[in-house]
Design goal:
This protein is an alpha+beta fold. It contains 5 helices and 4 strands. Strands 1-2-3-4 form a 4-stranded mixed β-sheet.
Amino acid sequence: MRIVVLAAAAALTASLAAAAQAAPASVDVTVGPLLQAKAEKTYGVRDVRQLADELSTDVRRQLTRTGAYDGARVELVLTDATPNRPTFKQLGDRPGLSYQSFGLGGARIEGRIVAADGRETPVSYRYYESDIRYARYNSTWSDADWTISRFAYQLARGKAVASR
């Protein structure tokens, strides 16, 4: 009998705690106009859209995990991205280009966080690799992926994300 009472009390406590939590932050990611133009002309729209989807997924996952910015609206713009290796579209457009080619990559993210009370906080983060020695073993979007992961991690810890 005592176990049933304790289990009921635990279930009631858990449901009250869940109800008291604010809704997780909503995340909206768009691609900036300059990057969209690069996507259409050079990189391929599919690749850039996948980066934007990855940004949305990573930020949403990290914010849900930590509960940072609950009830807020996170509006992000992927303003720039540079691949480490040629994209599928680049390889198709230039037959002499090799996937073994590599270079320095990275990305830039800008946006704002609109709190439930209407207060806005601008966010910005950028990272571009500066040492070619590390690019040789990377995949197509390695540095851009790293930028997205670091941004999501730092944002979820409630840090004011500044440009790097």
